[in-house]
Amino acid sequence: MKHNLGIVILMVILLVVPSSLAGLHGPHLKQSDKKYVISSESLGGTDGYDFVILTPLEFSQGLQPLVSHKQGHGIKTKIVTLEEIYHGTYFLVKGRDNPEKIKYFIKDAIENWGITSTLLVGNRTKMPVRYATPVDNDESVFTEPYITDLYYADIYYNGTNDFCTWDSNNNSIFGEYLQMNNSWMIDNMDLYPDLYLGRLLCTNLTEVHIVVDKIITYENNTFNQSWFKNLVICGGDTHGRWNDFFQVYVVLKEGKSAFEGEYAGNRIIENMSDFIATKLYMSALLPLGDQEAKCLNITNIESAINQGAGFVVFSGHGYPEGWATYLPGPLLLRQLFPLPRPDGFTSLHIQKLDNDNRLPLIMLDACSCGDFHTSKSPLAWEFVRYEDGGAIACYASTFYSWALAGTSNVKSGNGFIRTYIFKNYSEGTDKAGVLLAQAIKAYLNDSDAMSKYVPKGMSAMCIMGWELFGDPTLQLGGYPS
Predict the structure, then answer these.
(1) SS3 assignment, position 452
(2) Is 343 exposed, middle or buried (0-12, 13-18, 19+ CB in 10 A)?
(3) Where are the beta strands (DSSP E) in 236-343?
(4) For the stretch 115-142, what's the b/e string if a residue is b when 16 or more beta carbons lie within 10 angstroms of its beta carbon?
């Protein structure tokens, strides 16, 4: 795996973090102080627009069917081209560069049109991106900037109407923070989403047509389909039960030993009790493993997706083009036999899927499976853009991601976000963008998740890396006929 070394280094650093760091205090962010006015009920209001699709001009005609479709379901939708933003067609142009001009436009659209959701269409060469910048303070591991579309959703600062620049020190380096320092936030960032946001990573008009057709077909035809009630969980021994010192440290401090991917999967299954779960687990290979599970391998993953599912979860390790996890057991055995194979489930395997319109929302709970800086078409987007099946949308990280070891896995980091999304869905939230925004909000409001288990800078990295590759207004399970 490409990021194994980085992950191991991160584990070692966390192992030696002194207990005093558990009480880090950064800016105090809480729900009562925040202008967090969006809600799922606000979709389909009476004035202005609910949903703005931002796109380069070359894609605008291909997106018109999506506008008509959304309007037909009561979501007032408007296409705005980048050219219109830069030329001030609707609002006065503000901002030092194109990403800031887009963000100011979104602010104006919230305040003048009442929008609650925005879809960005285009890869990083078609639709500008902003990078978060973790700073090397001689204790940090990951210091390279990474793409974060949360920049476009975090419009206001700390409960005010003030524009949140993500560059409060005016050095034109955005989203600066220290990962392991008491003054962890360098640029004053709110980090609470002020609207629901997603991105379609289209590179050409053909991809626009494919994804628009998938969204329309899914929302019109999925309701009451039996396949939607299938839930597929892929997991294994993410950290290692016996040979990982980080595992021992966390288990002794906070939790119990567990195969993290499988433990997390079981927590999701508990929340999604009205779904039929298929567990594809590494421990199924062992006599004392989960005997209710099937073996995690390429064939079984393809078969489970091809049968159709409402949701598919991959929990383990990743890189831009693939995902994999480990067999429980001694370190040497785990290194020799990562499953499904040394390079994991990759973009090449997606091309063999034939699930047609039986499309799941896929969660890639792993490093860099949504990294569209390193890769023009990361694994998350390969699932969404695939014409003969794949996924209707994907949650994935644009950078390294992390999760705690053992049963503490669900208390912070990726584990918190992942678990909260499915808990919230089980309680009735059924829009793809709302689920992610509310999970981020819940993370920020949970002081233990933010700083008890790891430094706040690492929590910031986790929050800013999550991306929805899909339509934020997507009606999960489709609309009633």
Answers:
(1) helix
(2) middle
(3) 276-281, 294-295, 311-315, 317-319, 322-326, 338-339
(4) bbbbbbbbbeebbbbbbbbbeeeeebbb
Which of 29-33, 322-326, 428-432, 455-459 comes out lowest in average pLDDT? Answer: 29-33
Please give the Cα distance from 325 to 427 (Å, whole number). 30
- What global pTM score does this model have? 0.87
Task: Find residue 81's DSSP bridge partners.
Answer: 55
- For residues 91, 96, 102, 104, the Cα torsion angle rounded to the nearest 10 degrees is -50
Question: Residue 146's Cα: distance from chain center in Å?
Answer: 14
Mark out the alpha helices in 16-88 (DSSP H runs).
60-72, 82-86
Dihedral (CA of 368, 372, 376, 382) sign = positive
Whether the Cβ atoms of residue 401 and residue 462 lie closer than 8 Å to each other:
yes
| Residue 304 scores a pLDDT above 50 | yes
Q: Which residue has the tokens 């078609």?
A: 126
At 33-59, the pLDDT tens digits run: 334 344 334 444 446 999 999 999 999
Mean pLDDT across the stretch 274-300? 89
CA count, 13 A, side-chain hemisphere, 30: 5
Tokens for 21?
A: 């760091």
**Pairwise CA distance, residues 28 & 23, whole Å:** 13
Query: Omega into 378 within 30° of 0, i.e. cis?
Result: no
Classified as helix, coil or strand, 329 is coil
Q: What's the N-to-C CA distance of the chain in angstroms? A: 45
Residue 194, both tokens = 């002020």
Q: Report the DSSP beta bridge partners of residue 190.
A: none
Tens digits of per-residue pLDDT, 194-239?
999 999 999 999 999 999 999 999 999 999 999 999 999 999 887 7
- Residue 144 CA to residue 460 CA, distance in Å, equals 14
Domains of the chain from N-terminus onward: 206-469 (3.40.50.1460)
243: which 2 tokens?
Answer: 């040979």
What pLDDT is attached to residue 253?
A: 47
Tokens of 151: 């920049």
Tell me how crowded residue 32 is: count the other CB atoms within 10 A of its CB: 7
